[in-house]
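Task: sequence design from structure.
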């Protein structure tokens, strides 16, 4: 399935039905009076969060969504039928903005949560509505109003509590595949992961926590280089970040600094998010080399650094224990 996390759509609410001018024409009822009914109200347009959807792919092929118009009124004071509302399903975690102004209209995070994005047009009034003591035979009626029409920007931000970040080939996909049932593509070349991957990791309490594997960041990602800029938004909702560093790199501190600088450049408080730092691929180093690199990274970030191996599952239990502690589980 193609991963689409941004889309632009147009929504158009239904037009209100027209009122009519009519008079009673019944046998034995002289001067029956006005009987023109009101029109029906136009249908509204809603967005609804659906937990069964994972991407905004559906909006790649359909961009215009229209609710049903209200029907015109009828004789005998019959009110026209209101137009059916339209409910558009979107993934949980979808932000909705006005395309022209960029104003945030809503953030659909809970399953079943709904957002009204276009109000149906007001119905027209029939001439029966204008009957008065001064005007016993009104011929006035009004037309229905057009429904609202808006252009919207949809942005999907994955709902994950833990985000795994790092340079390309740091072992993020391997880690999430070992910790969860996720099966991302894994290979020995950079940018193997082209889309974010989600995996559910079982907590000690028995329920699950969602981990997100974010495609590799590189220098300049916050300005649009590589893939990181497209997917940095997906860690804005995370409560905890796991910085994964390739222990076999020539300069582990520099690798960590690149990621830290990109988080700071992107903003939105990502550089202040609680984080754990782990050196991965420790099976490739001798004990003395590993100890030295752990010390270098620990001195740089000012916190304990874990040495793990996603390939051999070494110390992954310690990583999870630290994760649950940070999350207060």
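Answer:
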């Amino acid at each position: 399935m193609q991963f689409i996390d941004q889309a632009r759509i147009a929504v158009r609410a239904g037009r209100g039905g027209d009122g009519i001018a009519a008079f009673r024409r019944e046998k034995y009822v002289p001067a029956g009076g006005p009987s023109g009914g009101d029109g029906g109200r136009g249908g509204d347009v809603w967005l609804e969060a659906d937990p069964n959807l994972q991407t905004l792919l559906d909006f790649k092929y359909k961009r215009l969504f229209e609710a049903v118009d209200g029907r015109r009124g009828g004789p005998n004071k019959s009110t026209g039928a209101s137009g059916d509302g339209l409910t558009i399903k979107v993934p949980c975690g979808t932000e909705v903005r006005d395309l022209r102004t960029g104003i945030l209209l809503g953030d659909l995070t809970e399953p079943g949560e709904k957002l009204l994005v276009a109000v149906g047009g007001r119905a027209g009034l029939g001439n029966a509505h204008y009957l008065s003591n001064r005007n016993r035979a009104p011929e006035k009626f009004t037309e229905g109003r057009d429904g609202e029409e808006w252009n919207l920007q949809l942005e999907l931000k994955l709902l994950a509590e833990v985000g795994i970040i790092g340079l390309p080939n740091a072992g993020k996909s391997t880690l999430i595949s070992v910790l969860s049932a996720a099966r991302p593509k894994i290979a020995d070349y950079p940018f193997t992961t082209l889309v974010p991957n989600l995996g559910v990791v079982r907590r000690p309490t028995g329920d699950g926590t969602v981990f997100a594997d974010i495609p590799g960041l590189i220098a300049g990602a916050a300005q649009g280089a590589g893939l990181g800029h497209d997917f940095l938004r997906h860690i804005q909702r995370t409560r905890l970040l796991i910085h994964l560093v390739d222990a076999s790199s020539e300069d582990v501190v520099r690798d960590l600094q690149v990621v830290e600088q990109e988080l700071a450049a992107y903003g939105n408080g990502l550089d202040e998010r609680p984080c754990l730092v782990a050196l991965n691929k420790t099976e490739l180093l001798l004990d003395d080399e590993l100890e030295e690199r752990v010390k270098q990274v620990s001195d740089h970030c000012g916190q304990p650094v874990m040495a793990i191996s996603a390939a051999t599952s070494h110390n992954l239990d310690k990583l999870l224990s630290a994760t649950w502690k940070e999350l207060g589980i």
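Confidence is low (pLDDT under 50) at residues 184-194, 221-228.
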